[in-house]
Specification:
Length: about 200
Amino acid sequence: MVFLTVLALVVMRRLELIPGPMQTLAEGIHGAIEEAIRAVAPNHVTQLLPFIGTLWIFLVAANLCGLIPGVHSPTRDLSATTALAILVFLSVHWFGIRSKGFKAYLRHYLSPSPILLPFQLVSEITRTVALAVRLFGNIMSLEMAALMILLVAGFLAPLPILMLHIIEALVQAYIFGMLALIYIAGGLQSQQLRSSSKGELNE
């Protein structure tokens, strides 16, 4: 986190009209994240960009930490992935409440029937647990597989293992961030759909 914070401050203090390599890279990452959010939640890009962007950048850095000799990826620890999943869980409700208000947001759990409330609550819990376990299991298995291959083959095949680790780390970060984005956007859009349907009925 200190490294990412210092890196962000360095890039921000050296912004130029004609960007250098580091600024170009930062702007490219920002643009890619912005487009990904726009594809899922086009009306909430500015609102979601800080959280989703930070989540993606952190996950990429955390997953790639395993490439440093003697360092394990933080995301191979279930407590770390659980903390991230809880942040996503809270953010879903935070953005939903900010968008439509506390009462209106809670009301959608009772729609179309109050009987579905227990199933709605179970769904919220299970997808949060799935987020945490999926990332933890994939990163831990990736590092264990890489260690086993190194123990068997020695250093005869370091490059394929390195490439596998990088690709898998990026893929898992993308999946986790995209699922978080879909969950948040789903809550926001469900509120909009209900509001628009009520308006059509009134008309």
